Amino acid sequence: VKDVVGKFLEENGFVYHKDVNIWHYERKKGGTSQNIVIQRHRYFAGYIKAIFYTDAYGQRMREFKDFVPDMQNPFQEFWEYETDKELKEILYQFVDWIRKHGFELLESISVPTTEIRPKRETNLYLYQNHNKIYERYKKEWKLDCMNGEEVIQVIWENIGKLYDKKFSEIEKNLVEFAAIYGYTLFIDGIGEWIWDEEKETCFVYKAGGMKARISPLEGIILSYRLKENAIKERYIIQFNYRQKWLRLKEKEIKNIK
Question: How far apart are CA 232 and CA 32, in angstroms?
Fold first, then answer.
């Protein structure tokens, strides 16, 4: 893979990132991360595929079947091989498709699908002001009198009141709701706010003890854009994880005694 596809991609500005069972190549173009991954089948030997994606907001992963017009089987996901010769033939075909169609595809998915999205400046504002915002709403909404699920419901109801407003008019409201949401994910008060300069995003980290980075602003804006409660499920995941962890700790203590 590195000798055929890798050499071609590196000639076109891509850098190889070592990983398990995949060959990951990335290049930065116009501030966007463009990625091509050659991947083995997870369970079966002798099967290989290619995946294309960028970090542009709202863009999904693509495969050859999504954009190559002259494929014999337009639904084909993996290519099967038994010998090194067959593998090389497949990889040279991949290179030909990448040259003819892949780079153009990456350009087309390097732009956000919508302007209703988190931005660097709003993420940075959230990171710098989350505590001040939360303390204000804690008094206004009497958050101390609610459990986490009740807080999530109140946030959701207030997002619903903004549906008939333009995003530019209520973007600041959504940032403030993101501050409340972020702290609500801190089950038992556990978690921290972090800034990722590369992603230009404010995350909550280790919320409830769970080793995951969550973008509160992403969840809030998604709820507004889709008009769905996209934040409730994440809270339930965090809450259930914390309860499971507490039960395991309690069991460990009993076993020690």
Answer: 30
